[in-house]
Amino acid sequence: MVSASGAEPTSAPDPDSAPDSGPAPDSTSAPASASVPAPDAASTSASASASDRATDTVRTSVWLDRRTPSRSRRAESPAGLDRTRITEASVRLLDADGLAKFSMRRLAAELDVTAMSLYWYVDTKDDLLELALDSVYAEIAPPREADDWRDRLRDLARSYRELLVRHIWISPLAGTFLNIGPNSMLFSYAVQDIVRATGLPLERQTGALSAVFQFVYGFGTVEGHFKARCDATGLTQDEYHQRAMGTIRAQPHMREIAAYSDDIMAARGGDTVEEMRERDFVFALDLLIAGIETMSARTGTGTPSP
C-alpha cells in the first residue's frame, strides 16, 4: 500500500527489503480501546493522528486497495510488462522454487527486467503473492449446475484437492490472505450454492462448508507436501513409503504400531500409495456427505434439491 505521505521515496529501496507486510489483523480480536480508559481532551487529537497513521500502514488486501502503487509507473517501464505478465511469472517461480525462495530479484530475472521496475505495478511482494494465489483459483472448474448437489460437491472437492497438490505454495497463503479476489470469490459462490442445495438450515450451512473444505484443505496440503518430499529425494512415492515403513519396522518400540498399520492398509486395499490415498479421500468425503444428509433430514427446512 502507499506510504502515509503518498509521496514517492527520494531514494530507491532495496528490492528485497521493500515492505512485505504481514497477514491482515484478526477481525475477532477486541479493539485496544476496549481495555483502556477514554483519552482526555488534550490527547484526543494526537491519538487520532497516530491511529490514522497506523491505519495507513496496515495491509488488508490488494483487492481492496484501488489506488495506484506509490512508485508511479514511468515512461521507461519495460515494454509488455503488466500485472498479468508479472502474476504469471510469479506462479511459475513459486511452482518451480517454492514460497521460501520467492523474491523480487528472482522474479525480475525471470522477466528480464530490473527489480525496481516491478514496483511500478505493485507496492509489495505480498501484493504479488496475493495476485498469484487468486490467479490459480481460476483452475478450479465450476461444477455442472444440473448435477445433484452430492456430485457437485465431490467434483468441487476433488478439483480443490488437485489444486492444493499442484501448487503446494498456496496452502500457507490461503491461510494468510483474505481470499477475496475474483477467482477466489467465484469458488466461494460455487461452494455456497452447493451447501444451499443440501437443505440444511442457514445456521448450519457454514459448519457443513467448513467440515468439507477444511478437510480437503488439510488432505490436499499433506498430499502435496508428501509428493514434493518424494520428488526432492528422487524416489517415487511408493519407494519412499516402503523405505520409511522399513525404517519404522526396524525400531523395536514401533513394531506393534507398524504391524497394526500394515493390517489397516491391507484391509483398505490399493497397490500403490496413490491408490490407497484415493480410497481414503473418497471414503472420507462420503462420510461427510452422509453426515450432511443426516443433519439435513433431522434439522432441514425442506427437501434437499439437486
Question: What is the overall pLDDT average?
Answer: 80
Would you tell me the structural class of the helices and strands?
A: mainly alpha
> Got a strand count?
0
For the termini, the CA-CA separation is 44 Å
Count every helix, treating DSSP H or I runs of 4 or more residues as helices: 12
Spans with pLDDT under 50 lasting ≥5 residues? 1-56
Strand content: under 5%
The global form is flat
Order of helices and strands: HHHHHHHHHHHH
Please state the oligomeric state of the protein chains shown.
single chain
Radius of gyration from CA coordinates: 24 Å
Report on the architecture of this protein.
By secondary structure, the chain is an all-alpha fold. The protein has helices spanning 41-57, 83-97, 104-111, 115-118, 125-136, 149-166, 170-174, 182-197, 202-233, 237-249, 255-268, 273-299. Helix 2 (83-97) crosses helix 5 and helix 6 (149-166) packs antiparallel against helix 8. The radius of gyration is 24 Å and the shape is flat. The model is unreliable at 1-56 (pLDDT under 50).
What's the structural blueprint in terms of helices and strands?
Layout: H1 41-57, H2 83-97, H3 104-111, H4 115-118, H5 125-136, H6 149-166, H7 170-174, H8 182-197, H9 202-233, H10 237-249, H11 255-268, H12 273-299
Quick take:
The protein has helices at residues 41-57, 83-97, 104-111, 115-118, 125-136, 149-166, 170-174, 182-197, 202-233, 237-249, 255-268, 273-299. The protein has 306 residues and is an all-alpha fold.
